[in-house]
Amino acid sequence: MSEEPTAERRSDAGPPGADDPGTGSSAAGTPQAGTPGADGVGEQEAAGPSDGADGAGATPVAGRRRRDPLAAVLIGVLTLLLGFAFAVQVRSTDTDAQLAGLREEDLVRILDDLSSREDRLRQEINDQRTALAQLGSSDSAAAAALAEAEERAEALGILNGTVAARGPGLEVVIRDPADRVTAGVVLNAVQELRGAGAETMQIDGVRIGVSSAITGEPGALEIDGEPVEAPYTIRVIGSPEDMATALSIPGGVSAMVNQRRGDVAITPSQDVVVDALRPLDTPQYAEPAEGD
């Protein structure tokens, strides 16, 4: 019974030194919750809020750490740009200062050097333009030479009978009902036409070339070994007036055929087609050179 009042008095009195002004400094120096103590309990309590279940305290720190490399890169780039601009400005200033401090003779020499360099550069530009123009003209010349070569090849093909031809000319028909027209008469007709400017011709289906041979007996003639029968049709390209005059001269082809009881019909035309082709002769001794 005597102990209960004592307990009540202790509970009413509160903690020792709570109302003692003289002990305030000692109470403030007492370790509180969250302050570092000797046993480290305060450090754990201070770290507690940052390690909460939602992790909200760690997010800003991580964000700042992720932005640090990018900021460093930007700062480095800006530093390089500023350094480059400063170096260019210093160099320009130094150059101007050097030129300002030179003598008149030195400035004249530098100006002469710059003028000579400009002249050399202009000359190089002119040389390049000239070379370009020569390349263009050489291409044009090559194209013209190629076109000329193709024309000559076509003309040679027409002359030797390996290319078909078309143009103004004559159609000559030699009739021989009595089989008395000889190979010499037909050959004479070919020679007269050539002399009058004939470019190419064919008799029936045989192309006449430089080495063509007309052989056989009347009524059974052969041209280059190919048999031909009367009436003999000659299609020839050339000047119609000149060739018709050559065949009709007194004592010419027409007169000779008439003497053998035949006749000659000459028909000018502006569109004569010579399409019989002559095979090329195979060389007996000659061979193409290597690389041709």
Itemize the secondary structure elements and their pairings:
Layout: H1 3-13, H2 24-28, H3 41-47, H4 59-101, H5 104-160, E1 165-175, H6 183-195, E2 200-203, E3 206-208, E4 214-217, E5 220-223, E6 226-228, E7 232-237, H7 240-248, H8 253-259, E8 263-274
Antiparallel strand pairs: 1-7, 1-8, 2-3, 2-7, 4-5, 5-6
Helix pairs in contact: 6-7
Description of the molecule:
By secondary structure, the chain is α+β, with helices and mostly antiparallel strands. It contains 8 helices and 8 strands, in the order αααααβαββββββααβ. The chain has helices at residues 3-13, 24-28, 41-47, 59-101, 104-160, 183-195, 240-248, 253-259; strands spanning 165-175, 200-203, 206-208, 214-217, 220-223, 226-228, 232-237, 263-274. The strands form 2 sheets. The chain has a 5-stranded antiparallel sheet with strand order 3-2-7-1-8. Strands 4-5-6 form a 3-stranded antiparallel sheet, covered by helices on one side. β2 and β3 form a beta hairpin. α6 (183-195) crosses α7 (240-248). The protein starts with a helix and ends in an 18-residue tail after the last strand.
